Every structure is written in structure tokens, then in C-alpha cells.
Amino acid sequence: MIRLEKMGLRYGLGQEVLRDVSFHLLPGSFHFLTGSSGAGKTSLLKILFMSLRPTRGAAYIFGKNVTRATPEQRASLRRRVGIVFQDFRLLDHMTTWENVALPLRVHGKRQSEYADDVTELLKWVGLGERMHAYPPVLSGGEKQRAAIARAVIGKPELLLADEPTGNVDPQMARRLLRLFIELNRLGTSVIIATHDYQLMTQFPAPRLVLDKGALNIHS
Questions:
Q1: What SS3 state is found at 62?
Q2: Quick one: CA dihedral 125, 167, 50, 60, positive or negative?
Q3: Cα–Cα dist 106/84, whole Å
């Protein structure tokens, strides 16, 4: 699913944000990604989402060396990935329902094929009464849940989530974790970047720990 070989990343002429990162993740795996603020978690997720190129080393996603891939190849591979950004990136001119349905529309599915699934998922994440609201009137926690629903609705091969429970209460955090676990059981590889120690104790998954740009795996 993912293989990184002595990968490094620096912005401009500054020090490396990530250095000599090497690991491989198998299909169907589940990992937490953790580390202090500024350790490079978001940068690593951007590389795995193929929106950022490493400055050295190699990154293989779905068996393809994406450091050498064309923009078209990278865009095609990204369609197999679901991602939850910290800033949500919902489209303000679309309702919550339309935002969540967007990945399925992009894949060419007819609304009649997915309408019930989108509605059911929105109810499950507590947005049943907000599905026709537009993002500007949603709270931070509601936007976060909508972004998560959008990321998982298409049952992606790889799910990347950057602090997905940062704006919700502990009960909803546990509910969302169950959603990620169920998606993983259906075959999706999951990487959750989080500072939430309590969340990590609720599921026995290995941890990818970033410290000053270097990465270690804790079972």
C-alpha cells in the first residue's frame, strides 16, 4: 500500500521537516500517527496524499513511485484516497449533503445509487438535521464530521485523517473511531494523525511516532 525509502522533506532553504523516513504499510492496516506539534505529521500526510513531493528519497503509493509520477497519474491515484484535512475544505456553495456526496459524483455514480447511503451516514455522524445547511453556518465540530463523512463515503482504499476528533466531544470521538475501525474491517488502510492519547488507547493499533522529523514505529 505505502512504501517510503529514506524520504526527506524541506521547505525552501530551511532544515529538513522530515528526514530519512522509511517504512512500509500493508493493505488493510490501521496506524495512528503521532508526535509533538511541528514534528511533521501534516507534511507526511500531504506526501501520502500526493499533494506534496518529498525533496529526496522515494515514495511508493499503490506500488507507484509518486515522486516521479506525472500530475495526471497523481490525480488518478488520489481518487483512491480519502482524506480529512484540519481545515475541512468543504465547498461553501454546496450543502452538507452535497459536500459528502461529491466524491461519488466525481466517480460518475448516479444520485439514485448513493442518495440513501449519504443520508444514512450523515445521520450516523449526528448531522441528520444539518444535511441541507451550508458550511458557513456549521460549527467547527459539524464541519469536521461532514469532512469525515465525505472522506469515508466512497470506501477508499486508503484513508488519511489529520486530527479528525479535535473539535468533537469524547463521545462523538469514540463514535467516529468506530466508523474508522469498521471501514478498516472492510479493507481500507487507515492512518489517523492525532494528539489524543485517550483515543489511541481505545484501539490496539501500531503507532507511527514522529520526533524532530524522524519516524519510529511502536507496536
A1: coil
A2: negative
A3: 17
φ and ψ at 106, to 5 degrees?
-60, -35
Domains, the chain, with CATH or none: 29-53+71-218 (3.40.50.300)
Q: Could you give the strand order of the β-sheet that contains 30-35, starting from the edge strand earlier in sequence?
A: 81-84, 158-162, 189-193, 30-35, 207-211, 214-218
Q: What is the pLDDT along the chain (219 residues), one digit of tens a residue?
A: 999 999 999 998 888 999 999 999 999 999 999 998 888 999 999 999 999 999 999 999 999 999 999 999 999 999 999 999 888 999 999 999 999 999 999 888 999 999 999 999 999 999 999 999 999 999 999 999 999 999 999 999 999 999 998 888 888 889 889 999 999 999 999 999 998 888 899 999 999 999 988 999 987
Quote the pTM value: 0.91
Cα separation, 218 vs 61, whole angstroms:
22
In single-letter form, the type of residue at position 196 comes to D
Q: State how far the alpha carbon of 216 is from the alpha carbons of 25, 47, 55, 151, 206, in Å.
A: 13, 17, 20, 27, 10
CA gap 82, 29 in Å, rounded: 15
What does the radius of gyration of the chain's CA atoms come to, in whole angstroms? 17
Residue 6 C-alpha cell reads as: 529514506
